[in-house]
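Chapter summary example.
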Amino acid sequence: MKREIQKPEGKLGILTPGMGAVATTLMAGVIASRKGLAQPIGSLSQMGTIRLGKRTEKRNPLIKDFVPLASLDDIVFGGWDLFTDNAYETAMKAGVLDKHQIEEIKDELINIKPMKAVYDHKHLVNLTPNNIKEGATKMDLAKQLMEDIENFKKANNCSRIVVLWCGSTEVYTKASAVHQSLKSLEEGLKNNDAEIPPSMIYAYAAVKLGYPYINGAPNLSCDVPAIVELAHETNTPIFGKDFKSGQTLMKTILAPGLRARLIGLDGWFSTNILGNRDGEVLDDPGSFRTKEVSKSGVLDDILEPQLHPELYANTYHKIRIEYYPPRGDFKESWDNLDIFGWMGYKMQIKINFSCRDSILAAPLALDLAIFMDLAKRAGLRGIQEWLSFYCKSPQTAQGLPAQNDLFKQLEKFENTLRFLEGEDLITHLGLDYYENELLA
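The structure predicted for these 440 residues follows.
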């Protein structure tokens, strides 16, 4: 049965806490695409197709023609940042895009100016901001954010809002008592509880207003029972965490292949260098620990060592991230895999991946914002696990293990879209073939 979905009428405001390299690359790409200056390569919402029905039917529409998605022409950008630079100035400094491309859309980018951001030195150590909010309590700051959101919506004549965290990785924080219920979180906000990081204040503000919230970093943010409870109370979709863009993307492509062929893995060593603001933040051990936890859980979820201890129980997984300013946003990663096969014979796989971090992350950010807007209009609430395809450390219901196999994630994503539109789910089982050909 087709689900009733509200049409994407009016403008969609995408507000980004953090207007650094990823956010401004996203903004520039959308603006350039709608002016015919570039293509939104890497975006399933814009360029992806989806198979419907049997293979013989040859129905493969664009996803954006199959489900009612917001148009790029209707998107309005805004955000908050710890620094006063507008989107044009930030894009020029970030060095992700060629200067001539930025100049072509200079007027649009200049008009995207950051609102003052929430900052807490305890949760973000290596930056010295100059554009921060003041408030007696964290609840005061949350109310200021809510006012910002509503003012932006009104000023830009938006019918809908999505809040998309594109800020830095915060110092590692474990869920504690203050995060366990909405009541305890709101008390903590009023009492300036030290365990509530800035990203969680943004999550609270957005979800309290009923606007979808996406966590593009490995921060705790919305991945706590309190925000999940609030999301159900306000009928709001939430999801995260951490855009799956570079080295972890390679892991979720390759590891399923090793697992499928039952090839053993002694060790996987990963290291990478980058020099953007993200690299500067991750140079702090506390922030690095947050990223390390996000990246390290992927292999266990895919390889399932409890099922094949002889192949994966003793896998040694090492992760390193080094801040190297000369590289800027041009990240380079090296992976060494020590594998073994038939009769225990040893082999190796080497990967050298040189990428532009924000170029890979921008289409993920766009898709998450657009599909979370779809989820809201379709009446979906709480954790949107069907979007795990886009994240390193997918948020799941409490106690439910994450699915990190990229190909299984894509299958779940596509089947969710089919479900929303009342199409048959595709399992690739081909029952007709079995019944009419093999068993005839």
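To summarize the output: The chain has a mean pLDDT of 94.
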